[in-house]
Amino acid sequence: MSGICGVVDFERSRIEAESVRHMAESTSYRAPGGIGYLFLGGAGLAYQALQAPAAGRELEQPLLEPQHQVCIVMDGRLDNRSELIDRLGPAEGKAISDAGLLLAAYLEWGETCTDHLLGDFAFAIWDAPRRRLLCAVDPLGVKPLHYAWVGSLVCFASDAVQVLQHPAVPDGYDELELAAYLASQIEHPEQSFFAAIRRLAPGQRLVASETALRVERYWVPDLREICYTRDEDYADHFRDLFQRAVTDRLRGEGNSVGVAMSGGLDSSSVAAVAHRAGKTRVRAFTFVFERLAVCDERPYSRAMTEELALEVEPVNAERVWRLESLAPLPHSPDTPFVGWFTVYREILQRMSAKGARVLLTGHGGDDLLRGSSRVYADRLRRRDLGAIQEVMHHARGRREPVLRALYRHFGRPFLPPGVDRLLLSTLGRRQKATSPEWLQRFVDRVPLDRRLEDTHRQRVFASFAQQEVYENLVRLPWYWKLANWHDRNAAPHGIEVRHPFLDRRLFEYALSIPGEQLFRLGATKSLLRRSMAGTLPERIRLRQGKTQFKPFLDHILRELAFDEIEELLRSPRCAELGFLDGESLRSTYRNFLGGGADETRRALWYSISLEIWLRRLAAITSCRHQRLRGAA
After folding, report:
1. What's the predicted TM-score (pTM) here?
2. Where are the alpha helices (DSSP H) in 382-463?
3. Which of 245, 265, 332, 419 is 20 to 30 A away from residue 17, measured at CA?
4. Radius of gyration in angstroms for the set of CA atoms belonging to the chain, rounded to a whole number
5. How far apart are CA 285 and CA 301, in angstroms?
6. Distance between CA atoms of 193 and 616, rounded to whole angstroms?
């Protein structure tokens, strides 16, 4: 596991080996275990190994089936091995690797082999006799795969910057995606930040031949309706699936498994289930704060130690966090997102020193379990008048105008979005969102309002709530962005980050049960709380609200990263490229330091992150141009 890349040229019988080698070596951080190559006809494939093979053995991948002349590179894990082995009956039996099992599945089912796989994966298969390339990513996009189609060439890789290294791929930014990033909009699931490079969205496969390249969604959630008579049955079913999702991700963990654990419900649930499974030693890591006590969650993580005897190591975020704007990071800058890189690096270094190979997170729990408030409109449509009473009672408890609450829950879901916007505008309740002054000119010149139109199609569910859950989980998901970020950051340490909540079985379950099992006014994540009874300490299971890290971001902007930010804004590359107004940005930052408007905080952070990304990328593209000139 770690990374894959390759090139297919449909007009040539042999590929330029040097171009494939440079793509793989340009992100050698993904290959602490070495790089393997295979060249077959018009294709060259590379595998970047997370772990070195045992002494005296070669890397297993790229894997070639000599009789059929089919080869594969795969980054990932298959969780339904037993089922696949029973159906395919490979000669190696249970000893077969995941890559070998996938290759056997392709030989049996062709491109529809993707329909039979469960797990987190990205792969490429080159079928030399048919001159066909098949690439795919898992249904939730946990493993990334980017590609470019230039003339007769198809280049693919785990990282977009790897694809950019090929001399045939033009560089240049996708301004629409950059503007969306600065405006804090969701990233397009099929676009990258580079104009010539696309990515496979969650649940997509690519099939390329001499005449065409086709990208299609292969995963359609199993939408069987699940109905029980008792709430407890829904919670029991979820608990069984969640336990399976956690234990499936413990395979290949090494001497122990790490868990990035806050004091919140999601990551604590992962830690508790992994710990109670008893298959391996579990060590949790939690961020602690000495100065900013409001951000510190030790009282909750301490409950995990006291009641479950879970080993918990503190990581002092205030001491470890760094912006590192001047340091070339080891990972590929596919995204401007900075985040908690140095804090996670501290965790990964500690894990690596102790022989651990897997880090579990609670990422995806919010996406999976938030549900939809539109369940109350569904209940009204079923003539359940108790829904009205619940909404009114909740509104009065929060001292919210009752008519406003009734409109939000029972009026808005039945109206087309345009009518809702017009109505609120007429009443003076909706104001057009505006970007900060330093971004406005750039954001105005790109069609952000039409950017995601192609992702909206016909309704899948009659239920308002289930349709909204489907949109958030399948059509326009947020979760894969951070999953891909973790994938890159952990690779240099020989560690894979896994996310039990990002499990296809859990997603399909959430889409199959009544909406009121996920969403209830005044009770967040009701289903998870009920399912964790007897597993989590009650202090965590019943905890309401989440720790807000806004004070820490303020501390970063005003103190921790002040010197670096001042240097970045002195002559920002963002301004040179026309993405923002440099003087306005500097003025807003100085105003923020003096206690200015809080609403500029997020936009400032995104602009600073983009500036760092552009500078790192400029160094990479400069080296690329020098190499191409030397080759010429």
Report:
1. 0.93
2. 386-397, 402-406, 417-426, 437-444
3. 332
4. 25
5. 9
6. 14
Residues 263-311 have pLDDT tens digits of 889 999 999 999 998 888 999 999 999 999 889 998 898 999 999 999 9
Q: Are strands 2-9 and 153-157 parallel, antiparallel or unpaired?
A: antiparallel
280 contact partners, CB below 8 Å, separation of at least 6: 250, 253, 256, 257
Band of pLDDT at residue 406, cut at 50, 70 and 90: confident
Alpha-carbon torsion angle 565, 571, 573, 578, nearest 10 = 120
Q: Do residues 558 and 601 touch, judged by C-beta distance below 8 A? A: no
If you average pLDDT over every residue of the chain, what do you get? 89
Residue 551: closest CA among 291, 248, 247, 178: 291
CB count, 10 Å around CB of 598?
10
Exposed/middle/buried for residue 485 (C-beta within 10 Å: 0-12, 13-18, 19+): buried
CA 490 to CA 53: how far, in whole Å?
19
State how far Cα 26 lies from the chain centre: 23
Q: How far apart are CA 393 and CA 520, in angstroms?
A: 13
Q: Is the pLDDT of residue 618 over 80?
A: yes
**Residue matched to tokens 């995104």:** 606
Q: What is the separation of C-alpha 491 from the centre of its chain, rounded to a whole number of angstroms?
A: 15
Which single residue is written with the structure tokens 């002092």? 316
Dist CA 141 CA 53 (whole Å): 27
Residue type, 48: Q
